[in-house]
Amino acid sequence: MQSERYDIIVCGGGMAGLSLVYRALKVGVWSKQKILIVEKNRKDQNDRTWCFWQKEEDQTAFEEIIFRKWNDLLFFSNDGKEIKLDTGSYGYTMIRSIDFYKHVLSFLESHDQVRFINEEVKSVLNKVGDAEVITETATYNAKYVFNSIYIKPTLKPHDQYFLQHFKGIKIQTDEFKGDPSQINFMDFRTSQENGATFFYTLPFSQTEIFTEYTIFSKKLLTQEEYDAGIRKYINDILKIKNYKIIEEECGVIPMTDYSFERRSGNVINIGSAGGDTRASTGYTFLNTQKTISKIIHSFTENNHPFFKDEQISKKHKVLDATFLNVFDLGLYPGDEIFTDLFKNVKAKTVFKFLDSESSVIDDLKIMSSLKAKYFIGPFLKVLANK
Ligand SMILES: Cc1cc2nc3c(=O)[nH]c(=O)nc-3n(C[C@H](O)[C@H](O)[C@H](O)COP(=O)(O)OP(=O)(O)OC[C@H]3O[C@@H](n4cnc5c(N)ncnc54)[C@H](O)[C@@H]3O)c2cc1C
Question: How far is the CA of 15 from the centre of ligand 1 (A)?
Answer without folding.
Answer: 6
